[in-house]
Fold MFS superfamily sulfate permease-like transporter.
Amino acid sequence: MTKFPHLRQDFAASLVVFLVALPLCVGVAVASGVPAELGLVTGIVGGLITGMMPGSSLQVSGPAAGLTVLVFEAVDTYGLPALGVIVLAAGVLQLAMGALRLGRWFRAISLSVVEGMLAGIGLVLIAGQLYAAAGLEAPASGLDKILGLPGAAADALGSTEALASLAIGAGTVTVMVLWRRMPGPAKAVPGALAAVLLATAVTLAFGIPVATVEVQGLFDAIQPPGGDAFGELANIGILGTIVAFTLIASAESLFSAAAVDRLHDGPRTQYNKELIAQGAGNTVCGVLGALPMTAVIVRSSANVQAGARTKASRVMHGVWLLLFAALLPSALALIPLPALAGILVHAGWKLIPFRQIVTLWRGHRGEALILVVTAVSIVVVNMFEGVLIGLALSVVKTAWEASQAKLEVIDKGAGPIQVYLSGNATFLRLPKILDTLEALPQDRPLELDLSGLHHLDHACHTALTNWAERHSTPGTEPVRLTACTVAATRKKEDSPVTAG
């Protein structure tokens, strides 16, 4: 016990994490359109491979609801064999980024973009799983899923089987929401597991005709990618999917690590090593043809709250998943699909940051707008392009805020008109600057002082010089331009320069 001083705490925590992870692994796999066993494979790899590696000592990895929409689209477009190639390539990219020490740069991604990404995923996930809860087939695109909900509701109301299926899904969500209010001993059982067990028991006891999980067996479900699958790498679309997998999985994992660090007082996350650990896990998942993995905040927070002290807890949770998948795979066939849909509806709801949106709107409306636009773009277009739109908006907003130029005009009625430009003059502020300058009288001498600028980009410098050269009417003194001393002018000038 001296060698493992925290074994008792870690053992207890591993059981809790296993019970939380089990229904989520299965639910994410089913929602992603792949065999349920592949979700367990990813959970096992997250525990046994990623769990043993350095990086973040207490966060737990596995298949994540945040990638469900993207995985479903990839499998639907390129087929299940190509999924292994995509995940493998994403893992290799993560390994390379970790080796190049790029992990810390993910912390520079705008939080509004990340939360918008999760909100968009949550909306599409909820919409898709509402169809699954009713036993109906969901449309392909996120927008069609949402727009088709009224029609789906009408179809469900006319079907007894659909209503029974919806009741199982709604009951699952209700149990998960209310389970936290249960007394001590019952509360120790994870809500998701309790909801699935109760839904399974009710379905069996009353003989409710609902679809259940299809079981293939662990080894039958594992299908390493073959040569034909690797040939798909010539497809430009699949390369974009790989990049999307890499960036989203990495960002979600490292943001999760930062959140987990706030929950405990133990060793802090080493971001580059954690990125390598995630890359190693995804590489193995790709070789096995399984789902991609990320660090999952639900399991990680459960691990910390259960009293885990070292990485042994997450490794042991992988052992329990392996034993379940090897010894009790037939138990999966008893789980009703609407119960898993209910779990994912609940997970999708928690991905939408309602409180953050309200807080941002009160204090930082630009950030709130980025969050909402990113989420809507993911729903309307797709995951990858939606995130790119969010990042582009974030960059534009930052550039706009950094470009704060103050223009002051002093006209004493006699003598030259004095114009002072200070701050940061970039092309974003150029139209307003030129409008003010061109409105000044051309028959009066002008002095334009740029010495107060901290930054002057090339576009502004060229435009101001051209304006000064052409502004004055014949017979009027040319504009007297006092140049700024920043690097953008290419030349430091200590004395006034007369243009004209």
Q: What stands out?
A: Residues 6-350 form one domain. The radius of gyration is 29 Å. The longest helix spans residues 236-261.
